[in-house]
Amino acid sequence: MEPMGDSIDVHLGKRLRRRRRLLGLTQQQLAGACGVRFQQIQKYECGANRISAARLWQLSEALEVPVGYFYDGLTDAAQRQHCATEGEAGGEMFAQKETLDLIRAYYQLGERPRRRLLDLAKSLNGDHEIA
Predict the structure, then answer these.
(1) Could you give the number of structural domains in the chain?
(2) Rounded to whole angstroms, how far apart are CA atoms 51 and 60?
(3) Are 58 and 34 in contact (CB under 8 A)?
(4) pTM for this structure?
(5) How many C-beta neighbours within 10 Å does residue 7 have?
(6) What count of other Cβ atoms lies within 10 Å of the Cβ of residue 102?
(7) What CATH number corresponds to the domain at position 35?
(8) Is 105 helix (H, G, I), strand (E, B) or coil?
(9) Domain-embedded: residue 16
(10) Smaller CB count within 10 Å for the chain: N or C?
């Protein structure tokens, strides 16, 4: 299980990237506004480096948002991660776009074609039982 601190760092990084892109800023431009190199912004955005309180303040000023913006949705994200690590939500598999596209397409089919598709998937899997 990923430590809670790591999931918070990843969440903050995603919020940072989202706001930067929304404003049309490059990593280089944001880095210049905060006095760091663009590689540091990259590391923040992917959660590889933890953002200090002082740096978070600078980022919030540069991105014209309150510091709390970065924490929005954190409780929901932490809960989803907990469910995923406990196996309740299917883990990382359901986070993949391809899986979500497949599920949407599957449920757009009628019941009979869905059963046939499931049978096909099972047969392609070598007749192993799919949970």
Answers:
(1) 2
(2) 12
(3) yes
(4) 0.57
(5) 19
(6) 13
(7) 1.10.260.40
(8) helix
(9) yes
(10) C
